[in-house]
Design goal:
The protein is built from no helices and 23 strands. Helices cover about 0% and strands about 50% of the residues. The strands form eight sheets. The chain has a five-stranded mixed beta sheet, with no helix packed on it. Strands 2-6-5-4 form a four-stranded mixed beta sheet, with no helix packed on it. By secondary structure, it is mainly β.
Length: about 290
Amino acid sequence: APELSTAPADLTVSCEAVPQMESLSAVDNCGTSVNVVNSEVRNEESCGNYTLVRTWTATDACGNSSSRTQTIKVQQKVISVETDVSNVSCSCDLGSTATVSLGILNGCSGNTYQYSSNGSDYQDSPIFNNVKTGSSTFYVRNSFGCVTGIKTIAINSPSITTLPLPRDTTICIGNKFLLPLNKNIKNKYIWHRTANGNEFINKPNTDSVGVTTYYVSQTPDSSDCESLRVPITIRVIDSTLTIIEHPIKQTICKNTFATFGVVTNSFVKSYQWQKNGVNIIGANAQNYSIPGAS
């Protein structure tokens, strides 16, 4: 039987790296001419992968034959998904959104792809409009229905210039609490009951004594983008100040101190002690001490 030269080794290659079929030679012990015939069979597998079986068959003049084979496993390439984020904006209906365009690198030639955003139905267009800001995951599948690329990106909301806000304030009962204004930064304030919830209020309640923490965000007049929430603690006090407990007359020993104090019905920022109707310099605390006679 004819003797064929050695066939190429079996291979596993990507779809873009399939080698050309080589030519093998054959000799025959009888010295007769040998005819070498090449053949290739393609066996399809999942996701666009396939196997090529290449066969070389040598036949001499007497009808004797021999053959060699090579198996090549051809695999789809793992693609690289590129993203381009544009048109980041805000609207009343959609909130903060962006346009995301997908690009494919290292794909197999001749393949077509479809695209999905955050588990949505696949579409032919690689462009997604009104994608919410935050984390988004995009999927790419090939024409064989297999996902060959996944890309997760973070889309930042538009930056907002905010005004500094007071974190803790005291106000008399019934008075309005006003946040600062700036002619150059025309922001609107949004009051929230909680740090993360969706319960809004029109304005803080100053009709009763108490301490309440609200959360305030800012949004520019030119858009509907919302800043992070800032906690503001408002202490509402009774504007009618009353001394509940007055200083008590004391008898003390020599070389000791008499300490007088008062108790009021609400928060007091400053006190002023007097003697015979005249202010005592430096006596501005809730308690006042004087030395006894020596």
